[in-house]
Structures are given as structure tokens and as C-alpha cells.
Amino acid sequence: MFDRPAYVNAILRFADAPLVKVITGIRRSGKSTILLMLMEALKKRGVPAERISSYRFDSMKYDGLTAKALYEMLLAAAGGGRTYIFLDEVQEIAGWEKVVNSLMQEADVDIYVTGSNSRMMSSEISTYLTGRYVSFEIYPLSFAEYLTFKGRYADVQAPRLELPRYIQYGGFPVVHLQDYARDDAYTIVHDIYNTVIFTDIVRRNEIRKVDQLERVVKYTFSNVGNTFSAASIAKYLKSERRALDEETVYAYLEKLEKAFLLHRCSRYDLKGKEPLKTQEKFYLADPALLYAVLGYDPNTVAAMLENVVYLELRRRGYAVNIGKTPNGEVDFVASKQNDKLYVQVAERIVEPATQKREFDRLLEIRDNYPKYVLRTDDFADGNHEGIRVMHVADFLLSDAY
């Protein structure tokens, strides 16, 4: 079992608090394993094994289980003192939220739940568990975790040399259980994709025109790193003689986001200091999804570098936006409480005009928060008028932000 202490420690800070610990994220990101880690950590803290009860609801054992039966089963398990209850993929039980609410009020319990679809999004949970939960999103392996994970079965090269493989293979833990060939790895990732599409989206939302949904997915995947809108997708589909109205496109994007397949990144006007409602970007839950669905294309590496940096900022608790300046855009404006940083990502900078563009956008911003230009080509580390220039791999592994 691969240890992921950043998640475990963050969740355990709320152990025994009167809050349901809700653990979310895309399928196969490691949520079930983190539950096991939490149980082991509680035992090390002195919690007797008999006071820990765990259930995995994607098992046929619980097929057809009603909320009432679940409530009675868990209430019985909670008899006899403080009980730690772990409910994996709990969204499979209709009415689970009522069960959890009742237990929190009627029994001496500390509850941890996981889920992988829209019923576990914060917008949904806030309706079910008003003021009684704290949420944690689990992402596939970070670059740092990938290096450690891979090191268990193979030699690991220097981080800058390993980064291209991480971009291609992504961070789903199952892909790194052994040294899979690329096609085999993409077969695994494509199966994860199919499960999300057909189980978490199509079946749950009773979508009949699956081909329309998949066309929206492929357009979105093909445009990672580009700003676009539901209107631009609808216009494109119309040009392909696949008419789809803007409202339906927007609904599909929302469902993809709620299934944790996509992450929405909105624009923010740095001068006017207000969010912008048009031309957003979407990033994938894992870079390997792009290649598993559309095939590997080296021309997409720049977009996937941006995707990987976005996910790393989110893992570290930053709210991330695209920054609009008077003369262009900054790839990322990352904010966390009183901290902020600005990031430009480039695969390589060859032409002087490209270098000027990347740096000038950051130099337009007149504040003292850290500013970074990240790249992967050969360059001299250092500063340019206060802007830190770093290799993407070094940034992903840095503790400086």
C-alpha cells in the first residue's frame, strides 16, 4: 500500500470532530486506499480494531440495499461506544445522506465517506449535509508521488528526464503498479474513462444521445489549454452537421465536471479585480486521459504541461484562475488565503518574441507576489526582473510555494 501522507494527515486533523469527512475525486484516484490508510492511522492512535467498521458499496454484497436497511446496519455496528465508520462509494445507496445525518445525531460515531460522481460534489453535499461535513478531493498521483511509486519496481531517472513519461502515463495509481507498455497503460486509462462516462454520467443522468456527449468530450479534450465557451462548441458541432444547442452543451460540461473528469478554470480580470463569465478553460483529471481517448500526439505536450501544473496547484489547495491583463493573459493566478502566485507555462522558448510575450504579461502585474515562468527546454535557472525561471519538473517538486 503506497502511503500518501499529505491526504491522510489533512483528513486526520478532523478526526473526532462532529463533521462527516467526505472524500471525493475521479474513479481510481486512490480514495479507497486512503480509507485503508486512515483506518491504520487510527489504530496506531490507539483506536481498537473492533471500533472501526468499513463497507464498500460497489460490492454486489450490498446490491439493492435500502437507506433504511443501511441505517439499521450501521446503528447496530455503532453500539457499545465510539465507532469509526468508513463508507466507500456510498453514493451507490440512494438516501445515504439521510442515514449519515441521522447517525451523526443519534450515535457516537465518526464518519468517513467516499464517492466519485455528482452526488458527492460540494454543491450537492451542501444540500444533504448542511454545516456537517468537510470535503477533501483526491487527485491521481502527483509528480513527486509518481517518482516514489515508480521507484518501488523500477529505476527512476533524474526528475527532468522522468517528466515526459509522467506526462504520457499520468498519475492513476493502477497504471504504475508495474512497468506497463504505453498501449497497455492507455487501455487501463480508457477503461477508467468508459466507467466515468457510462456509469457516472450516462446511466445516472439517463442520457440517450451518448454520441453527442462524446463529441463534446473530444472537443474539450482537444482544446485543453485553450479558452472556449459552450457557444463555440455548439458552433463547431453545427459545422460538423451535429447540431447541439448551447444549453445542452453547457449541461454536458457541467456533468463532466461533476464526475471529476474535467476541472473548470475561469478567467479573472487582474485590472478590474473581478471574475469573467466567458471563455473558460477546462483541464483533465489526468493527462493520460487525453492520450487514452484521442491517441498520443507529441504536439499536445505543451497543453499537458499546463494541465499538470494546474493540477499541482489544485492539489496544494490553491484556487486557480486564468489572469486577464490589459495586453494578454497569464496562464494561472493561484490564490490561497493571503498567498498568491502567478505562473506562465511554456514547453520551450526559442524566439525572442516568445520570451518577451511570456515575461511581459507577468511584468504588467504591479504587485510583489511571486511570479514564475516554467519551461522544459535548456535554459539558465535564475531571475528576470524579479520573475523566477524554473524547469517544470523542479517547480512540481518545490516546497517554495
Description:
By secondary structure, the chain is an alpha/beta fold. 43% of the residues lie in helices and 21% in strands. The strands form 2 sheets. Strands 7-6-8-9-10-11-13-12 form an 8-stranded mixed beta sheet. Strands 2-3-4-1-5 form a 5-stranded parallel beta sheet, with helices on both faces. Helix 1 (5-12) packs across helix 2 (31-44), helix 8 (182-205) packs across helix 12 (287-294) and helix 10 (230-239) packs across helix 11.
State the gist of this model.
By secondary structure, the protein is an alpha/beta fold. The protein contains 15 helices and 13 strands.
Keywords for this entry:
21% strand, 401 residues, Rossmann fold, alpha/beta, 13 strands, 15 helices
Distance between the termini: 28 Å
What is the tally of helical segments? 15
Give the CA-based shape.
Answer: globular
Mean pLDDT: 92
- Please indicate the percent range of residues in DSSP E strands (runs of 2 or more): 15-25%
Task: Tell me how many strands there are.
Answer: 13
Q: What is the total number of structural domains?
A: 2
Radius of gyration: 22 Å
Main sheet summary: 8 strands, mixed
Outline the secondary-structure elements.
Layout: H1 5-12, E1 20-24, H2 31-44, E2 52-56, H3 67-77, E3 83-88, H4 96-106, E4 109-115, H5 122-128, E5 133-137, H6 143-150, H7 159-169, H8 182-205, H9 210-222, H10 230-239, H11 246-258, E6 262-269, E7 274-284, H12 287-294, H13 301-315, E8 319-325, E9 328-336, E10 339-345, H14 352-363, E11 371-375, E12 382-384, E13 387-391, H15 392-397
Parallel strand pairs: 1-4, 1-5, 2-3, 3-4, 6-8, 10-11, 11-13
Antiparallel strand pairs: 6-7, 8-9, 9-10, 12-13
Helix pairs in contact: 1-2, 3-4, 8-12, 10-11
